Amino acid sequence: MRTPDGLMGFPAGPASLHFASRQKQPGEEFGGWLATCPSCVKRKAKPVQTTTKDTGETVIVPATVERDVYGEGYDWIQSLEGSGWYEVPGWGRDGWDLGSWPYIIFAAAVTSDEKGQLFGYCTYVEGDVTARWYRSCEARNLAISKEAFWYWASGQSDGPEALEGMDPQDFRQIDGLCEPYLPDYGK
Prior knowledge:
Elements: H1 30-35, H2 38-43, E1 48-51, E2 58-61, H3 73-79, E3 86-87, E4 90-91, E5 96-97, E6 99-100, E7 104-113, E8 116-125, E9 128-134, H4 137-153
Antiparallel strand pairs: 1-2, 3-7, 4-5, 6-7, 7-8, 8-9
């Protein structure tokens, strides 16, 4: 899936995992901006109120794409198109599998409010969709790394060989793990 920036939502540089989003235009009221958010209108989704995991702020964010009752994970990935959410297939310096498609899928999004940017990620696990939002990209990336570690160490997803046999509850900082996978696409 290609996004407006042309690289599956990944920036050219390795500084952060960032996905395309519409910025609020000068003069727009916050509620009006979300009510007319192109991805929400296209999906007929209403914005939702949630609490950021890192700062505890109450924020209004785009709704996640819920599962299709008759579909499976690949159908869910297709339903992300135009929603502001993008699937994240690989994680860590070497692009290890993030999840186990079509059963476990990660997606990420970026939006903003009057205080700045908000960074979200959600998981689709056998049809159940759970979203989490953070004020900082670093906090969101660490949360993705911790969840990826759990799936890799438990053997539910293919990850670094060094994690085989580790306790999935015993997250450790491992070189190259807590960073988004930013492919160079032959550059």
